[in-house]
Amino acid sequence: MNGKKPTIDDVARLSGVARVTVSRVLNGGPNVRPAVRAKVMEAVKTLDYKVNPQARSLAGGASRTVGFVFNSDPESEPNSYYEAALELGALRACVTLGYQLLIHQIPTDSAGQQQRILELIDDQRCEGLILCPPFSDDLLLVETVLTRGCKVVAVSPGPSARTLIDGVGVDDEAAGYDLTCALIKLGHHRFGFIAGLETHLSAERRLEGFRRALADHGLGDDACLIRRGDFTFRSGTRLTPEMLDVPHPPSVLVCANDDMAAGALAAAHARGLDIPGDIAITGFDDAPVASIVWPPLTTVHQPVKLLGQRAVEMLVSRLTGAMVDGPSFQQLDHGLVWRQTTKAF
Amino acid sequence: MNGKKPTIDDVARLSGVARVTVSRVLNGGPNVRPAVRAKVMEAVKTLDYKVNPQARSLAGGASRTVGFVFNSDPESEPNSYYEAALELGALRACVTLGYQLLIHQIPTDSAGQQQRILELIDDQRCEGLILCPPFSDDLLLVETVLTRGCKVVAVSPGPSARTLIDGVGVDDEAAGYDLTCALIKLGHHRFGFIAGLETHLSAERRLEGFRRALADHGLGDDACLIRRGDFTFRSGTRLTPEMLDVPHPPSVLVCANDDMAAGALAAAHARGLDIPGDIAITGFDDAPVASIVWPPLTTVHQPVKLLGQRAVEMLVSRLTGAMVDGPSFQQLDHGLVWRQTTKAF
DNA sequence: GCGCAGATTGGAAGCGCTTTCAATGCCGGA
DNA sequence: TCCGGCATTGAAAGCGCTTCCAATCTGCGC
User: Fold this and answer.
1) CATH topology of domain B8-51
2) Which position among A80, A260, A264, B225 has the lowest Cβ density within 10 Å, counted as fewest Cβ atoms?
3) What are B244-266's pLDDT values in tens digits?
4) pLDDT < 50: residue spans in chain B
């Protein structure tokens, strides 16, 4: 490090070719003789040369940067397992693909939500965006971003968003359906459902699947009690007592995510109930918390880290032009995980 | 958006000044008459002009980018609460200060750890780095990074790292001491300590504080049983049975973090023990899991999000030259949180 | 052996910004 | 009124890279 970092001109000089040829080699351009390519690569190695990404974007007009946008309350806990796992997967994919990930956490308050996201595109010159719920379903936002010429991939978008942009996710409706059917087979016929925020369409799909299963088995609306939480542990503990204090309480509490299920579990414990004897509980996500609580939670596994990775991969294929047709949705597999908050199957 | 984004020249033209004057205004440079400044600002607003950060770094030589480096196993869960919270705090500070945060997760395998981090500096031109444990204490790594002319702030560094670089953290030794003294006052006199990885010096300090407290109260090494985990829930469940299966088992298990404490709790439950009646348990961090498990965990609170924020603030003051003297350490307050895995105080 | 398409190379012109450094304008003191 | 000195502005020169386009070199068919 005896001075400045080497530049592309240093490489060109050392390998005896023009600067533009080095650029070609570096970018895998066509029409470079193998011998020349090798010579350049050697010079690159000798000098330990690295392209300057800033200069590259300036000249090339592509920042090779994508934004990862998720929602979280400034005062609340840090990003939940769901976001953290998505981010990790996205991060890995970015490293592999040579892109930069700009993490952006947007407060819930939301007056200026859209503004903040647009700034991300304008100020930082992001070429693409990964939108996590509930932004995945903010059609207005999506339109605006697209207008800016920015590619978007949504994580777990609802049906309408899927007509606009690419997305990755599991089949939440089917997952809700499968889980509920299995619960019915287990003998349950009075259900409680702790839903999440309405704005998270993918979580709402779980509820739809749940309802369809009930209907398919001839169980009407009177067989289920539905309450709405906000995906937090606390909302689980808060809602549970009131769902249990009714004439014919449910024999199982189906929760839209694991945190709320953990909350429900805690509330049930607090009432001295036996789980799953007195009340069964199920979650969704298969987050670490599902294995940590006692008894461990029956839940639906979804490959969250993989979702994040796939989202980036899709985004990048859009950016590089490898993908050109209309919006596509990549559906990954989910799976029921039977643990001990439900009777053995 | 009828075409390209406006450039600094557009602003210059519209406001009738030279490009360089616009640049001065934008960067708060001196010697610009208020009237001119206002005129330029107005043009900026009219055009909705945003500086192009890539061009700025190319010309100015400063990337306004800092790296956030943490360690995590590719196969393991996503970043724990600790890292996630640090990241969130750092992210917020970066937004405020106009810097970009480049998150980098480095695998544990570590053959190429150092290499990966250096690439982060060389490839991405990071100006500064935030090092999370265990990198905070990797003196060799720190030296190398400093040689590259890159500023560093360590999160929870040990004593030797503090002589080299800036750092933020709580007084882990005092925290361990305080907690243990309180436990002794509560009547405990046989202790189990589930330590973390040796490479995390800050967690080791908790053990040192623990030992000092024991010594101060005339309790020898025979009064405590020490085992080493890896900060995971699983290591807590694994270690607990063997610590309890001894002639005079401890009456309290002090754990170096909350996840292991949660694991210990689960293992104790599994043996049918009453908590805190048969065995008390304490954690460290005051992570969400501490409130989620049953009974909720007595633990030591540390302001993790704030640590992340402060780390970025320190780093940026170094970068801007606002801070020039030797390495400094910013110590934040910790606090004991009494919940229900220990007897009422 | 000649001519042309395609493969290889290089020259030059910026990308949008900051950084010298030189050119003005202004003030008070002599 | 003239001059030094400072405040204010601008012209020019890049930062390190890519892109466009022209130049040269191949190979092949005839």
Assistant:
1) 434 Repressor (Amino-terminal Domain) (1.10.260)
2) B225
3) 999 999 999 999 999 999 999 99
4) 1
